[in-house]
Amino acid sequence: MLFTVFLPVLLAILIPFISKYKEKIHTGWFVMIAPLAVFIYYVRFIGVNFEPTIGQYNWIPSLNINFDFYLDGLSLLFVLLISGIGTLVTLYSIFYLHTSERLDQFYVYLLIFMTAMLGVVLSDNLFVLYSFWELTSISSFLLIGYWNSRERSRYGAQKSMMITVFGGLSMLGGFILLYLITGTTSIQAILGMTDIILQSEYFYLILALILLGAFTKSAQFPFHIWLPDAMEAPTPVSAYLHSATMVKAGIFLVARFTPIFSADEWFFLLVSGIGIVTLIWASYMAVRQTDLKGILAFSTISQLGMIMAMLGFGTEVAIFAAVFHILNHATFKGSLFMIAGIVDHETGTRDIRKLGGLVTLMPISATLAFFGTFSMAGFPLPFLNGFYSKELFFEATLELDRFTSSAAQFLAAAIPYLAVFGSIFTFIYSMYLVFGTFTGKKNLDQLPKKPHEAPIGMLLSPIILILGVILIGLVPNLVNAPLLAHVAEAVYGAPIEMDIYFWHGLVPAFYMSLIVVGVGFVLFYFKKYWVAIYQYLPGKLSLHKVYDFLMDQSEKFSAKVTKSYMSGSLRHYMLYILGAIVLITFPILLMTDGININFSNTSEITTHEVIIGAVIAIAAIATIFTHNKIATILTLGVVGYGLALLFILYRAPDLALTQLVVETISMALFLLCFYHLPNLRKRTEGVFSRSINLVISIGFGALITIIGLSAHSTKLFDKISDYFVETSYSLGGGTNIVNVILVDMRGIDTLFEVVVLGLAALGIFGLIKLRSKKGAE
Amino acid sequence: MEIIMTVLAGILFTAGVYNLLQKQLLRIIVGATLISHGAHLFILTMGELKRGAPPVLQDGIENYSDPLPQALILTSIVISFGITSLLLVLAYRASKENGTDNMEKLRGNENE
Fold first, then answer.
1. Domain range for residue B78?
2. Does the distance separating the beta carbons of B104 and A700 come in below 8 Å?
3. Which of A140, A216, A240, A636 could form a disulfide with A89 if both were Cys (CB 3.0 to 4.6 A apart)?
């Protein structure tokens, strides 16, 4: 399993090399290998006797973070969607993207996304799941911004990133709390500890945080605003990420944790409440859109809301319908996106006001679109899979009688009406989409290109998806026991057996479908009479403005904060660094009782040492007050040579030698350079900054002294130097211990030291020898 | 003696930091040099002073002064020499190109 997850990203490494030959053979043909192989690997798991399997691979065992993959029904459904639709989308993109585009980048992003998404649905480890989750956000960001020269693309990419990553971080908080409560990172183990989690005082916080992650990812109200802007991505991406797979990650997450959360009525209130609001609002807004992909984006949001609502119901029928609809939605919405892309490709516009009458020019696309939209609308025909899950949805709305709290009972009673209301608009936008594009008056002179039917390669993917729509519609039980039953079982926690059949008899759900179709047709026919309502609702209200306002304000605020301390002045930066060291170290020394000064165990004080020390101290302080270049250099030299004398006294002959040599060369260098440098000026800063400098430097010096004294007085363990004394000759073969340490025991250190010197020498050479651009030398 | 040397290291640091906080490149380099001197003295004092012979093995001598700080300091002296020389030449070149060695004037226009 590990290999299948990482296959796409491994292939991505080769893409830059393969794409060099993109003029001869489209890179997409190679990319298709990855999802196709994954699909073939997993499709064999479909079957009545499927059992969940586990694959474990260590990653960071010390933190309980491992690549534990768990394949149950739910994961299997998603893996098949990701790989299956992935294959079709790649095939479609071969004809959609011209070889003059930056194919290498596109396919690398796409392959990264595939790995990320497979990782999300297969991971059994909370934190691995989170990592893959954020990786999907990042690859989505890159893909939305693929045409990065367009301002709208960049805006959409940033928006999706901000919103989904915000949700992802909340989710991480929820995961950490779950880990703290249960002590395990395995999702399956956590699902077995439902009682502990339900009784935890953090339960509602966990619920809210994880749902926030799911709602932002799955574009639920009011976080849905990123999805319409994400339509700036190339159409294959919209079909794949923003309809079939990535936006369903939130649904996946809710489904995954349903066995725990559904016991609490707040889960129903939040998930179904938000879901049904999303369903209604998005389908209402979809009717107003003029861009084909805009309609499809809002339609996706509303369908996601419907699935979310069903997961919130938590009944057998609802969960079965939810997983069934995940599959159905991927088939018809994927194909509709591809057809929208075809229309765009062939006519040069996606504006539905300019389109019309294309049915005679693009008969195959039109036929496919009719199947797709009628399935989406839930039209009662026995060869459309959308009808089945819609009918089950209505059935599920009527079975909500398990709730005790009054709020939940109220919502449960309202939901059938809300569901019908939302579905009427679903029906209207479906009809609007297909009839507006393919029937009516032709406006050929308004179209940028002369339309004709798309090439067969482009049609192939939507044809396969529509065949899926029809096949599932004709024989729904084909996918029932081998696949859907396992999925529903994984979500519900117990086996669900459900027969899917077309004719239920004259049950309430059927009447609801009839109402939707009837009222929907009437409203669609008289659309121009009521369309003015959009001027009042939403009118000028816009969630985008809220987002833009927040973004704008936070940008201004962070710019202000940054500017307040990033002044560009070296002195300020040094002050921050040194001041922070002093301010943090002193209190910690005090708090931990680290200051420990005693005067025992010291060597004797001799007069000549004290004199040398005093000279060094005076010289060091004098460097501050001298304003003559030569004088400063010489006082600095006094410090250096004084130090060399101390080295001799303290039995360090090697140090003394080196210090003498280095000090002499340094002096020469200083003198050479100082000759060219401007003379030192009197210090001109005011009393205030002078006293700050003084406080910081004295504080820092005092800190060093205190640390040194405390360290001298505190001996926590034996010196390690004895080892060097003992082994210098036996291991290093030398009598000068310091030299043996440098060239033998710490040889690599010294090697790098030489490298540093070499680099410095190169830098100096460059600075002196290379001519400046201005030709100053 | 260790106490006095530690205080001396502190004084070297104080003078070094004060120079570091000045505007002129020259002073900053002087400050950096002083700080490295202070650090060397600090490390050497850590290893206790004047205990035993210089760390060169000789027959009949058991007690040597601590060789480890000396090895560290030796590395450090050489590195700080490299850094100082680079800084010096950088200062030379920068003041030649820009006509000033005042760090406040070298900040770039947008922050003026």
1. 2-57+65-99
2. no
3. A240
